[in-house]
Amino acid sequence: xxxxxxxxxxxxxxxxxxxxxxxxxxRAVWPSVERKLTECNVRNYSIFIFGDILFAYYEYVGKDxxxxxxxxxxxxxxxxxxxxxxxxxxxxxxxxxPGALWQPVEEVWxxx
Length: 112
Hints:
The protein contains 4 helices and 5 strands. Helix content is 34%, strand content 27%. The chain has helices spanning 19-27, 31-39, 65-74, 76-85; strands at residues 6-14, 42-50, 53-60, 89-90, 103-104. It starts with 5 loop residues before the first strand and ends in an 8-residue tail after the last strand. It has 112 residues and is of the alpha+beta class.
């Protein structure tokens, strides 16, 4: 039996003065960053923009989300990537994940 992926969603703001920089970065995401996400069981990852709001969605197909997220956080290429992307972002939601820019969004409905 195949395990269903876990659906994850997050929201953050993009600083208006950094919007174009953020979009340019994501027109050419570093292959090493994409590889690490894939190695850590992240699939079907999308980031959407609406005004100055960024919405991210991905599916997790592994068995230990926390461990895989730690592996991404420990990856030197991902850390370097974030030195470029993080300054473009601003927290816009109440902190349910303390200290994180991207805050998780609760799923309220899903049509399979």
